[in-house]
């Protein structure tokens, strides 16, 4: 009896616990990914601001500025502040709740859930949810159909066996209390043996079901992850820039929830359904009257527990969000540790963090109170319900309507049914979470890139030709309000070199990004050998381009692998030739040469940059884009990289477009294009422009010279500015 009471209380607590457990499971990932998307180290740069005097009226340059920016992504793009992973947890709300008469019952809630109203998300973004349905979820499980059918069969066996337990215990009690000679129509030893075998079969079926369900679930998760990641990689770069943190959460957490939902959750739901149905049927068979009384008590209490559990889960979600905020604050400041130390902000940061900790504590305290009250109340309700049932059941036993064994079986079945009802609501919640997670994952799977990689004609490998920008206008999709390029017209002959020059933010990188087809222009066109580059398949077009970014990105692996990145067919000879062309002599002095692991070799900025130039060269590109390849380097490294660029420029078969701030880099190009206010304001040969009195280029160069000198602590004088050519 005590066991039954405990069973019922436990049953009531299941829904509540489910909420908390799933919430707790989400806690860690939230803390991990809550901050600024993928954790990118903050770089603190005290940078000389080049070309700070675009305005003709002001010739005094700003000398230097402190810039703190994230590595790799340049723009102030919209970064999700908290990539909360509880996004799929809130079940869909019922559509109408205007008054008591219209308040939906649990059944209608379940139906409204089943109609799969899109699950609300905390950080909902426009159009970032795929359509989802149970059908689509099940479709995912299709390749596992055979395994799942076997698992369902095994589930039926194990559930049937476990439903025999209450009946057997009841019969056992009657057997001993009546001194009967047969048990279940058999002699006791034979009956015991049959039961033992049956229970073994049940246990084996249960174990096999769990194994099959879990492995199938993991296979589904693996399949979805691979597909979703591949789909992500095929998107336009803007997409990943904008939502890297969110994508990672979709790939890790949402795929997990999805896989769980179509396997374990489905299996738990089925088991709960079978247990509830068989339990109620057995109870009716034993005593319809007592069953009726129990059905009046157990389900309402269970449902009360479910709703209460939901409220607690909401509270728990809020706590997790607060924990996410707290972690975000800590992560941000720990990444900027030197800044905090340099500005003696330890106390300030300590109090800011304490505020976050306090909001977590307040929520957790509320949660603790509610949890305590819930556990107390659910235990009491369970016990009171049990008392009622025992009272009425005892009465039925006293009038010989049922036996003591029947009463025991009935009580046990009622606990089973109570647990199963909780299990079923847990199943629906899990299903809803699966649907929500599914919509996020399907969105990733179904999304078509704005610049599909393989759409368009293939470019012959050997082809080179002039590049032309024809009245190109462009705004970044994430910042539509600012027109970055306002009608760029430019012609670049094949095999020549051009330096794009302009103040910071004038659009040098943007031009290179358009050339790489990371974006497409809003108006006008970019042509290559007379063909709009949008007509080429981006994959094929990009294979003709080598890009060297300002921050060289090297991956884990050997030097060879890094140079051959993106050129899987490159031989060791090709890699060595590219390394030579990129002035990477130092590689031959590394302990294992080209087989040295990048992590093991402490490479300087200049060496890393030259490796990334070699990576661009090994694919034998027609066009080489160098985006401020030397701006972050010291003068020794800069000289080494510039020497490499010099060698490349001398090659006749490669068009070099370099965005540059430093005079030493600009001077190497055959032609200079000056960008101002989104248009080309001047262009020509370097020596001509730098000599021409009053040229925009000359003003910019003078300012740059001042900046370079001031960064070295040398005072610049007017005559020196006039003597620009000699200075260079
Ligand atoms: N991904 C982006 N999303 C939105 N705006 C961007 C993005 N990248 C650059 N911008 C904005 O576009 C403008 C031009 O930037 P761009 O990087 O092309 O200039 P730049 O001349 O290369 O500057 P710098 O010399 O500082 O590298 C700037 O105002 C910049 O803030």
From TrEMBL:
Record domain ABC transmembrane type-1: where: 149-433
Region (Disordered): 49-100
Residue ranges of the TM segments: 148-169, 181-205, 269-286, 292-311, 372-393, 413-432
Gene3D superfamilies referenced in this protein's UniProt entry, alphabetically: ABC transporter type 1, transmembrane domain, P-loop containing nucleotide triphosphate hydrolases
Residue ranges, compositional bias (Low complexity): 73-95
Keyword set, alphabetical order: ATP-binding, Membrane, Nucleotide-binding, Transmembrane, Transmembrane helix, Transport
One Gene Ontology biological process: oligopeptide export from mitochondrion
Major localisation: membrane
A Pfam family annotated for this UniProt entry: ABC_tran
Keyword presence, Cytoplasm: no
Domain called ABC transporter: residue spans: 467-702
A GO CC term attached to the entry: mitochondrial inner membrane
Signal peptide stretch: none
Membrane topology of the entry: Multi-pass membrane protein
Localization of this protein: Membrane
Molecular function in Gene Ontology: ABC-type oligopeptide transporter activity; ATP binding; ATP hydrolysis activity
SUPFAM superfamilies: ABC transporter transmembrane region, P-loop containing nucleoside triphosphate hydrolases
Keyword Transmembrane helix in record: yes
Bias (Polar residues): 50-70
UniProt name for this protein: ATP-binding cassette, subfamily B (MDR/TAP), member 10
Organism: Kwoniella newhampshirensis
